Fold these 4 entries.
Entry 1:
Amino acid sequence: MALTDMDYISKEDLFSVLESMKIALPRTSKMSTEALSKRLKDGLNASQRSEELIDGDFLDPRQFRPWVDLRGLMRQTMVMQQSIMGNFNRHMTQGLPRGPEQTLEELQDVVLYFGHQCNAGVQNLILSDKDVDDWAIAIRIFGAYTVDEDTPVFMLSYRIVHSIPNKTLPSVSELGRRSFLRLLNMNSKKLTHQYEPDGDNNRKYAKKKWKVSFILPLGPVPMEEVGKLTTDPGCDVCGSTKNVSRCSNCLTVVYCSPECQRKAWPSHQDACRSLPGGTWTEINLGENPSTPMGGLPNGMFVTRLNMHESWQGRRRTPEVFRAGGESGREPDIPKDIHGNKAFLLKFQVGLGGGRPNHMMMYDQAAELHGLLEEDRGSRGV
Ligand SMILES: [Zn+2]
Ligand SMILES: [Zn+2]
């Protein structure tokens, strides 16, 4: 079977892999497989920080120095990915299975495994499933190189094999292998055509059925990207993301055309009619004079950082918004990215303790967040 067929991922699995990257789209979304695949591609690129690490359109490893500290390679890969050694041991070496919603973790472990094997001087690897043996990915690692002082890149070639020599570790699920293959195929197109691996032995693995590619550590997808990739799940009927507009009555669903809206009406009407029957409250968003930044106490600050993301190893400092402070400096107000467009806010009741009657609120990309507090003044909330 051709290399490209094996990276097929069903629609349901695409939702799961995206979820593993915190890109949670409603499973009822009618988005096409192609549109979901595009989000997966964008998600993977954000996870490996392609835009930041690849100069221009193509990665050119000829400008990189070899990664010398091989013992530090695995540790550094782990730091870049925020992955935990215990996970690697439990899932990869002891074979504890993972669910489809843990695919990103599984891919991170594969990259960690590359570091592990590089360190041990092993160049040929097989990624197979210990329970299903009809296909596996054979990998030849050419070496690890230094993209920037703390980011390694693994140069390699790969091919599909159907007879697996021996039941080697590690065990990578079918979906994990398909997703990994997709990443390899994607990166292969980003590699400069001038690249050739060093040494005759390696060059044998760059010919015929072997395809040359690279792998960068896979970090958490930054919050900003998560926000972009979870918006616009498309027309509720056909999945098209072009020319969509919201149902003017409830604002909870979007349609691409009056035809699609008519088609949806029989099933949508109950939900649509129940919303205007609810209690609607108008609130004003703005600065709270007593506690700047919509209610955060003085001195606290908020960032647009995925909770699974770390600052370590990131060249780009996440944008930090500070509330005012003792110094009397003005609080930073994040820019208004929504304008007059409708958007969803999530309200979360405080987890006991702290201040009563307040709710945490934030939008999908965490571009807007703060506390909503009961107005004890005359107007009520
Ligand atoms: Zn439609
Ligand atoms: Zn409606």
Entry 2:
Amino acid sequence: MAQEMCLFLRVFKNNLVIMIKGDSTEYNLLEQWTKDFDCQGFMTAEIGVREGLGSKIMLDNLKNIYLHVGIDPYGNLKYQHYDDTGSYTCDYTDTMRDKLLEDMAVYKGKFRLYNDTDTNFMNDHDFVESKFTFVHFDGPHMTKDVLTESIWFANRTGPKTRFVFDDFPKYNMQLIRDCLKPFGFDIMDQGKNKICLEKQRLVM
Ligand SMILES: C[S@@+](CC[C@H](N)C(=O)[O-])C[C@H]1O[C@@H](n2cnc3c(N)ncnc32)[C@H](O)[C@@H]1O
């Protein structure tokens, strides 16, 4: 994550106020890019869920979602976060996952947590034939990982699709953008830390 910044949103559940936190920046942009975007009855995904603010914004603003999948192994894994750092653990614990599941219960039937890594998700037969029209890439932040995820999802898009990348200055976004061009994607809008690419034409 580029900068530690927490935002809080209130969700009312059985008259209780619960807080869903985010650790990133520019959630206003994510809100803008999701607002009323028609997912055309396809799936949506967020890679890297943490406490759930990104997924909550997607579920609250996107229209016509079949199912939103949050992909996150939690388990306080030790891994290399960026191209130029070593491996270290953060605070992505199973306790955090359990709280996330409680908080997201309000989205029953629309939200599913895939409690495993991006790699295992992409190798899971259940999703080989799935199609996604909005993806938030906010898990591992190494170029090779984001590139692999991007191409996997680019092969499984709907007619109109948006990809949002968090912390894009931390990896080689130019390379990822170039690789997504043949799939019909190009930059729609960008902030300092988040960038939105849209598939603007149908590639046969
Ligand atoms: C920056 S946080 C995500 C923040 C979240 N999107 C939000 O808006 O609040 C990164 C998350 O990526 C998860 N993560 C780490 N390695 C992963 C992997 N290989 N596949 C999927 N998620 C991973 C971590 O467990 C952590 O919860």
Entry 3:
Amino acid sequence: MPLKQTDVVVVGGGQAGIAASEHLTKAGIKHIVLERARTAENWRSMRWDSLVANGPAWHDRFPNMKFKNQHQDAFVPKEEVADYLVDYAKMFGAPIHEGVNVNSVQRKDKGGFVIETTDGVFEASYVISATGAFQKAMVPPIVPEIEKIKQIHSTAYRNPGALPKGNVIIIGAGSSGSQIAADLMKTSRKIFLSVGAHDRPPRRYRNRDFCWWLGVLNLWDAEANPSSTHTTIAVSGADGGSTVDFRKLANKGLTLLGVTEKFDDGVLTFKNNLTENISEGDKNYLSILDLADAYVDRNGLDLPLDPEAREIGPDPECIVRPIRSIDLYEENITTIIWATGFANDYDWLQVDAFEANNIPSHKRGISSEPGVYFLGLPWQSRRGSSFIWGVWHDAKFIVDHIQKQQGYLAYSGSAERL
Ligand SMILES: Cc1cc2nc3c(=O)[nH]c(=O)nc-3n(C[C@H](O)[C@H](O)[C@H](O)COP(=O)(O)OP(=O)(O)OC[C@H]3O[C@@H](n4cnc5c(N)ncnc54)[C@H](O)[C@@H]3O)c2cc1C
């Protein structure tokens, strides 16, 4: 197949790839975006049916286009988020080649990269890996395949009707796990939720959404440092959006459990850390209220007091006396949903841009392999990096870097002494 040449190949046509393409287009840099499926595919096929964005429409978007036909405070359904990204890409004519899988990227001997794809071979001076932070479903090897119990990752959950009849345990209580639990609680099934360490900001406080609070408090822009770890955030925009309150969910029938530890002969056991995890989540919640109050005072804002927000209800029985083990068969549990996050998948990126365990080696997305960039990683430069509004700014930084490099390379003099 003929070799195709361009300056930059962007791998992945999700929001990260689109943001990169917008900045490359503005900078007049020749590029293509290679996407193995459709634009914004993962918003369509890796999420459950009832998912809405975790932040309101005014916030969870790129700076240069608003959501059409949406109230600014609405939580946009996931298909419309995907439609928005497709429209956004069309707005500036992003050169996205859909249905093209990148099989490998390798360094050429004398500069640049060769990119082997299902649509032939490309050559480029720069490669941006925009395959995101949520690449490969991660399921810890705790429960072997067992008869009569379906095990799926949260990316494969669609709706309650698609699961076998019977009760469900969800393992992991970040945004995915807690939202899937709430979705399933609308049925008559008994639902169990294994809760690990989490942050749980207030959905609304003093007439502002938590996205606003994290913004003005400079927490979305908190910079990455070596100790920046990804603590899962339990938030939800479902049903108009409300604070994830595990006590309230338990009072409605959800059984809370500690971190899932092991499985033996049909019995799942849990660490004795439910009380601690819930209480740490409360501390995080209250700390945001404290920061918000201090911000209001310091800036003399006219935002109404909200003392009810500080009322933490009584602990339900499952927190007072945590259940340490359950027999899946006795409890008629027929489905385990692993809401346990994601792992990297960089087999195709065969360059010197990784630390041990395939972890990207980079500073703000500029990798240790000159010419290779990462985009959309958690904490790539700041807390907001893997989210819609954050990736756009990281993309700008990366494209600026490419443009500067091109500027140096365009120099054609001979460093004459004049
Ligand atoms: C359940 C869930 C809900 C979320 N909700 C929100 C939210 O409300 N607000 C928010 O801001 N963020 C949210 N996020 C976080 C983040 O915004 C999304 O995960 C988003 O999809 C990440 O965009 P991305 O472009 O970085 O990666 P992705 O959307 O995953 O896009 C990567 C693309 O790369 C393609 N690709 C991968 N490998 C190759 C290859 N070898 N060749 C060619 N193409 C390839 C994939 O097909 C994919 O389309 C959510 C995440 C999850 C998991």
Entry 4:
Amino acid sequence: MVEILKDNPPTARQPLKGLYISARLLSLVFNIPLWTLYYALFPRPRASWTVKEAVLVRLFRYLMPLNALCKLAPQTLDKTREVPESELKETSFVWLQPVDETLLKGAAKDTKVEPVKIPGYIWPKATPIPADGSLVGLWIHGGGYMMGNGSENFPEGDVARQVFRHTKIEHILSVDYRVSSEACHPAQLQDALAAYSHLVNTIGVSPSRIFLFGACSGGHLVLLLLRYLYEEKVLPMPGSVMLFSPWVDMQIDLDIAAKKCGPRPNHDIDMLAASYYANLRFLGHHPISFLSSPYGSANRAPPGSYKSYPRTFISVGDAEAFQRECTELYTLMHNDGVDVTLDVQVDAVHDFYGSGPLMPHDTARANVTKRLVNWMRGK
Ligand SMILES: *[C@@H]1O[C@H](CO)[C@@H](O)[C@H](O)[C@H]1NC(C)=O
Ligand SMILES: *[C@@H]1O[C@H](CO)[C@@H](O)[C@H](O)[C@H]1NC(C)=O
């Protein structure tokens, strides 16, 4: 176990970093034609995928480890910069003030990580979120806690865009929380809490009108925030929760690396390539046991500890590596009497709802939207 607990592989430093990245990128010149030929001639991982889809999924899986192995933080920019309106078409920029110290207890308190001011974005543009009875979404983007941002220009913002366009949610706040190259845990929890408290305390939105939602590691942060609200009761729980391909289990990445268990289901066909380096960087100076706690791995919370959780919609694909942990989470919540829905789309890969036309496939996305709309109507 000991030797795997280093958060810096040799590829995180020069010159290996540059060499490794160049080699991976250069090899695409051969790999893309090879994969194309292969998937044209032989059965694809799922018969419903086109050759292009099969190649794209493979390409994502091939490039994704670069973030973890080379400590890259793509699509994450300086969070002290106010993004000008000219760079935004659908949203407006808003500053979210550092979360009030009185809301910080237990897991959100740390001697080394302090609350800071962070960027937020609101849908629709130039329309402040009102305190009236509108339905308001709080969106948390994904990216393995390593990459991405909360702006409309980050591709996965498509989740928020679809929810905004197709459901009765009238306003959405997207939080641009700190990723682990900027600060480790509990920075992400502090920032998510800052956004939630901005809605509840600053604007005065009723928590029961709030839909807290996230994708991938954003789904993990949703679950982290919920667990914190459940444990510390600093603010009421939101009325509803939506999780899209959420990362649920942080412990399993270490267990897999230490060969204590087999790989995740679909790990060899999904676009996701998980790495425990992401978990260790998120963890920072905190004890490793945090990863298997209900904060780190919501599927490892004891039965009974989901009572009083809000109504929840979980979306996952059946070709995705997170399928099992999503099902475990669903079962725990369901057994605790939570009003929880699990929607599994056939042949869909990780983050299919937030990956636009790149990923298989359009029907799955349309199905989820339809199901979401019905779910909001109470069906
Ligand atoms: C967010 O990501 C998009 C897409 O890569 C990028 O164009 C944009 O500059 C990023 N914005 C911020 C504020 O990080
Ligand atoms: C979408 O829903 C239809 C009907 O409910 C179903 O037959 C189909 O398999 C679904 N598509 C996917 C990709 O799951």
